[in-house]
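Reading group handout, session on sequence-to-structure problems. Before we discuss, look at one worked example. The prompt was deliberately terse, the way you'd type it at a terminal:

> structure Short-chain dehydrogenase/reductase family protein

The input record follows.
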Amino acid sequence: MSAFPEFSFITTADEVATAFSQEIKGRNVLITGTSLNGIGFETARVIAKHANLVIITGYNDGRLKLSEEAIKKDVPTANIRRLTLDLASLAGVRKAAAEVNSYSEPIHVLIHNAAATIGPFKVTTDGLESQIGTDHVGPFLLTKLLVSKLLAATTPSYTPRVVFVSSGAHAFGQGVNFDTIGRPNPETYSSMGAYFEAKSANILTAIELSKRSKGAINAYSLHPGIIFTNINQKEEAIPAMQAFDILGRDGLPNEEKFQWKTIPQGAATTVAAAFDPRISDKPGSYLDDSKIANEAVASHSSDPVIAERLWTVTEKIIGEKFTF
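And the output record:
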């Protein structure tokens, strides 16, 4: 194996993709949540320079077209396919998965980047709290429905990957609340608490997916960093961000309290989790600054007993068993 560079806080997604260009070459990658001015878009853009196919998703096809045009303008050789996907609807997830399953190509990497807006209490079409529904339950079902597409990418030298964009902020929460995960309670709801819970669920799912697949799929979770993207610029998200001093009174990043990454820096760890061959023997790991950082995971988000329980509870919510 050739020597790869060491990455840091300031490493950009472009630098990571360039380092792993041979690993990306020929791959088909599906990335959720690829709107302009977000880390999913930047992830798609840099991967598209080297990949065989990049499938970009969103619930709004008009916005998706803008992302496709922007990527193709920057990368004329990019092979981009748009997929309408509403993660806040289990029926919507099933419809999108059926479309992907009709494609001739296997899926080498599935990247769960999309997230619901942090804001006032809302429920999905299936009656789930918006963040846990969009950030955890929808992605869980999508992975389950696409597992045969992922396994079809397997070769003697390649194991398909599933990547969950989590957050270091998971550690500020209490982990997954099994009392409300399927029965949301507006009385006890906290916008940031729901965010922490959803991000804990991402880490736990990566751990359990890696375990249950018995080496057939390598799953990873990650902290992208604190980044000023489209999701924390939404009007409904600003009060919660200000309450935690993430944004100042002016709605702009609080640079005195936090060290911020640019969008290119924020997308770097996703690309590393998707393609770094050095982590192939460490499935279920959590990354930060494009490196494994399992020591940064809170105990409530790394406990294998909790991971197994979450898997079983989520199967009940979607009404389907997720087996291999």
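Points for discussion. First: The mean pLDDT is 94. Second: The chain has one domain: 13-318.
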